[in-house]
Amino acid sequence: MKVLKFGGTSVGSPERIRNVAELITARGRNIVVLSAMAGTTNTLVEIGEYLYKHNINGAKEIINELERNYRRVVAVLFSDVDFRMEADGEVDAVFSLLRSLARDSFTEFEEKEILAQGELLSTKLMHLYLLQQGVHSAFLPALEFMKTDKNGEADMDFITEHLTALLDEYPDADLYITQGYICRNAYGATDNLRRGGSDLTASILGAAINAKEIEIWTDIDGMHNNDPRYVENTSPVAELHFDEAAELAYFGAKILHPTCVLPAKVNNIPVRLLNTMEPEAHGTLIYNTETAHTIKAVAAKDDIIAIKIKSSRMMLASSFMHRVFEIFDNYNRPIDMIATSEVGVSITIDNPLKLEHIVDELKEIGTVSIDRDMVIICVVGDLDWHNRGYEAAAIDALRDIPVRMISYGGSNNNISFLVSKEDKIPALRALQKHLFSNCQPSNP
Ligand code: ADP
Ligand code: ASP
Ligand code: MG
Question: pTM, whole model, 2 decimals?
Answer without folding.
Answer: 0.94
